[in-house]
Amino acid sequence: MIEKLLKWLDNATCNFLAVETIKDELENAGFTELRQEDAWDIKPGSRYYIVKNDSAIFPFITGTGDPEESAFRIITAHSDSPCFKIKPNAEIYGEGGVVSLNVEKYGGGILYTWFDRPLSMSGRVMVDCGDLLIRRLSCLTSNVLWRLSLISPYTSTVVSTMATLFPCRRI
């Protein structure tokens, strides 16, 4: 069971990929996607799901009894988590040819826990194809893309006072 969970977590490295992973599992379990722009023909005793913005999924099973007499149950969860979102035109060129990415912090991340560990990148990328923007899901986890090195707290006010850690400038 734990190996199945770890494999699932490896496949669902961001909210977009979590939705794709859940979608595959639902389809294998006999669920049918309902698209928001289509007319719905919902039948009793059937399994459906709705995807919103590629980042949220809402599966449900319709009951077979009278809706006024049968109770309904709603179970919810969320799939997003604290992260750094890369901004458009993100390149920041520094001395010696160093290129940093301009990011914004999303969620209530505890930033010092991100130091001295391998980080990778996954999410939704918008590709400009001239007259058309194409959405693609991307997961770059096969190699460590970067590591935020912890500077000694004795030599850096950034580390000793985490409140001054601004992700868009320092990370």
Lateral arrangement of strands in the main beta sheet: 1-2-3
Report the end-to-end length measured between terminal Cα atoms.
Answer: 37 Å
Radius of gyration: 21 Å
Can you give the mean pLDDT?
80
**General shape:** elongated
Query: Helicity range of the residues?
Result: 10-25%
**How many beta-strand elements?**
9
> What structural category do the secondary elements indicate?
alpha+beta
Q: What percent strand? A: 25-35%
SSE pattern:
HHEEEEEEEEEHH
Flag low-confidence runs: none
Which sheet architecture does the biggest sheet show? 3 strands, mixed
Number of helices: 4
What labels would you give this structure?
19% helix, 171 residues, alpha+beta, 31% strand, two-stranded antiparallel ribbon, three-stranded mixed β-sheet
